[in-house]
Amino acid sequence: MVIENPLPHFAEWFPAAAVSWLLVAGVLTVAALVLGCLVSVLRYGPGAGLGAALATAFSGVVDVVCMSPRRVAALAWLAVKESIRRRVILVFGLFVVILLFAGWFLDVGSSEPAKLYLSFVLTATTYLVLLLALFLSAFSLPADVKSRTIQTVVTKPVRPSEIVLGRMVGFTIVGTVLLALMSVVSYFFVTRGVGHTHEVLAENLKPAGAAVNGRQPLSGTTESSQGHRHKLYVDASGKGVVESEFGHWHEIETTAWGDKPSFEVGGPEGMFQARVPIYGKLRFRSREGTDVDRGINVGDEWFYRSFIQGGSVAAAIWTFSNLRESQFSEGLPVEMNIEVFRTYKGNIEKGVLGSLSLRNPRTGLIVEVKVFESKDFTPLFIMVPRKITEFSSADVISSKRETPDKGVEFSPPQNLLDRRLAERKEFDLFNDLVADGELEIWIRCLEPSQYFGAGQPDLWLHAADASFELNFFKGYFGIWLQMVLVIAFGVTFSTFLSGPVAMLATVGAMIGGFFSDFLTRLSQHAVLGGGPFEAIIRLVRQENLMTELEPGLRTTAAQMADRVAEAGLWVIAHILPPFTEFNYADWVAYGFDITWDPWIVVPTLRALAFLVPVFVAGCFFLKTREVAQ
Amino acid sequence: MQSSEVVIETRSLSKVYRDFWGRQKVRALKALDLEIRRGEIFGLLGPNGSGKTTTVKLVLGLLFPTSGQALVFGRDATDVKKNERIGYLPEESYLYRFLNAEETLDFYGRLFDMPAPLRRQRTADLIEMVGLGWAKRRQLREYSKGMTRRIGLAQALINDPELIVLDEPTTGLDPIGCREMKDLILRLRDEGKTILMCSHLLADVQDVCDRIGILYQGELQELGRVDSLLKVRDTTEIRASGLSEACQAEIRQVIERHGGQVQSIGNPTTTLEELFLHIIRESEAHPGRRVRGGAGNGH
User: Fold this and answer.
1) Which of B63, B99, B103 sits opposite A629 (nearest CB)?
2) Domains of chain B by range and CATH?
3) Among A93-102, A373-382, A604-613, the least confident range
4) On chain A, which terminus has fewer CB atoms closer than 10 Å, C or N?
């Protein structure tokens, strides 16, 4: 699974984030105050204008602080009633219809049907719920203003903050109920959709070993179901296992013995997972044997993965910290997903050979524990046993890194290397290879002129399994966060814009939010092809992204305009919520546990950090608006 | 009942409507100075576009003044705290049509932060008062215009307000409803409440208002007590019954002898409203009998 922007843990993220938020909030408040004063002075003159602006700001603060929960609840209740009247339940009906049709088109015979189903339901739910949130929130207040029902409300002792919050809470309640219904229906749709069993026919089985107490162990294959079949083995006790295929296996129980044995095959196991990963820190070893931050660029415009050359000393090295013996008492479960870049086709049916080694960063002992065959992006699982007796090679080596003064630093120093460490026939995972909880895993490509590509999350340790059901609902929590943000933006825009315009503005905020990462990189000049104006020139002149533009007045002017545009893009990227951060669909579909810290806690707080200013802005817009005009 | 306490005060209140670009579209109100005291019924009169509704909206804080100030209970009109003591019946009872009468009153009661038992009591009392007990569970979308006005009035009274602002209160009501509305306005005044109403219907204003202000093209043209404004000082009206033709001729001679000029002598007519109400009352008292209106009915 691709994780382009890994999040820091709460403890290391929060202090700096809080300071940054306070700073931005302060700057925005001052800017809004100055702007408000300017507008007011222009409208009412210097004395009265300034007084009116400051009075409005003060009473606005009072409005936000002195909200009545009863009034907010009443307005939220009204929003719920209004949504029911607008027949939001139809959206749920539409969702059910989509699922019914999807049942025809989703291929349960694909290699990873669970991933397909989970991605589909989460994506469909996201789009439907966000669309619903968009329409409900953007059109409600403008409809009230148009029908003038707002006049009967604002002539009661209702504060603008209560109207805005009541709307937000009401629509959130509606969306939450709908989302909860959708999640339950989706859960059953997915588990029933890919759930299956296999028939086992006696004629497809043959004896496998000597009979025990007259009971014959058997091996063979199951019948095909959902486009696949499994190899199976049933021992003399009647218990059977099938080989994992398509990401799952089944349990088998013998129900009758004799000439015509019969078997009962259980449902798919291991299909729905929530694996708890431990990620390491990735660095590379160059062809020259020096440690570098990035590997070779094979011409890919996406810098997520770096590459190592096959048949050389180059390696991708993950350093894991805080490994505990109690956590991995049975051994080290390593899972990886390596990209293969071929410079020649070779035997395309076969994978490219690679090796996995473990290295003790303190002693330099490195043991090559496994040679594997990697096909492009095929998940690999290697269980490194606690006692390593089977290995290809063992050595003691230092890692080499260039120092800033162009010198070279070895770790551990070469004179301290004890080569006798590698002469043993058996290694203990924790006693010999893990030092103070630290361990390095090296991946090498063994075939010359072929390359392996890796990003940091491409190799990880499978620490534990969490509850799939909980993970599934965490995935829906991500959709809920997105929904709340859309509602907040929709309601705020609708406090001063008409319904259709508020909807367009909210859609703009959503699109900007979805691409906020790209906008940030664009504003930091980190995207190939320059900024928007340079890109226009390249489009018109059909020039590629890599070549420099011809120097001249036009190029200089475009690049100067880009500097200005980049500043604007930086602001936009930072005032819009990064919607992709709240999208956990991949985590659920690929079977990774969405850990509370940081993946739930940090995005939730970030969403809150956006919600507060958006709400305050909505209050001020409504307060300064003449609702009867 | 009227006191010297000023409930509504406007000081050079002006309103200019502008377009999106800030260009002046219309000057709706020009330097209005007005004081409305506690316990009086004040009527704002004027033709369409004269600034009546603009004045009401400025007083309620629904619009912001271009210049000048509107004070209600001594507070600025944009202060929400003042709304705790105000009841407002807009021109067309702008209510949520997907709610029923009980839900509507309960909702507005909650906006006044009223506790649930009090809301229930007020809701029941007001529904009873406006005579909608039989339709209290029906959504307002099914209500006739008159029923909507009644529930609109009920919501305006949910907080037992000290100041009641009524915009065209009798619009959409049948003559019985009109009379009931006017009676209610007078009763509310008798309870010590202050009422500001604006209306096109001069008869309504004449019937209930203590003082009136007449607006024309955004300017206050006339202000004063209804009885003194309507008094025609150079004309004397004598009403008597049972006079013969000879007696009438003699009275005519007496007037002429004293230098007066007889403008007309004849039988006065009642108002159509009075006639209508009389017929309805009679019909209810004597079902099936045709009621004779007009002259000689002793009315």
Assistant:
1) B63
2) 6-231+270-285 (3.40.50.300), 237-266 (no CATH)
3) A373-382
4) C
Residues B118, B86: contact at Cβ < 8 Å? no
Spatial neighbors of A579 by CB under 8 A, at least 6 apart, are A482, A485, A510, A513, A514, A516
CB within 8 A of B89, min separation 6: which ones?
B149, B152, B153, B155, B156, B164, B165, B166, B167, B169
Which residues of chain A lie closer than 8 angstroms to B81, CB-CB? 157
Q: Would the pTM count as exceeding 0.90?
A: no
- How buried is residue A403: exposed, middle or buried, by Cβ count under 10 Å (0-12/13-18/19+)? exposed
Number of Cβ pairs < 8 A linking chain A and chain B: 78
Average pLDDT over residues A577-605: 90
Res B70: pLDDT: 93
Which residue do the tokens 């120092």 mark? A403
Q: Where are any strands of DSSP class E within B73-150?
A: 75-76, 86-89
Nearest CA in chain A to B15: A629
Q: Does the pLDDT value for residue B163 go beyond 90?
A: yes
Distance CA A292, CA A284 (A): 5
Q: Please report residues of B whose CB lies closer than 8 A to that of A87.
A: none
Residue A360: pLDDT band (50, 70, 90) is very high
pLDDT for position B280: 66
**Bridge partner list, B216:** B219
In the predicted model, is pLDDT for residue B298 greater than 70? no
Residue A527 reports pLDDT greater than 50: yes
Packing angle of the helix pair B175-190, B145-156 (nearest 10 deg): 10
Measured CB to CB, residues of chain A less than 8 Å from chain B are 44, 59, 63, 68, 70-71, 73-75, 77-78, 81-82, 85, 147-159, 626-629
Amino acid at B182: K
Higher pLDDT, B26 or B20: B26
CA distance A15 to A250: 48
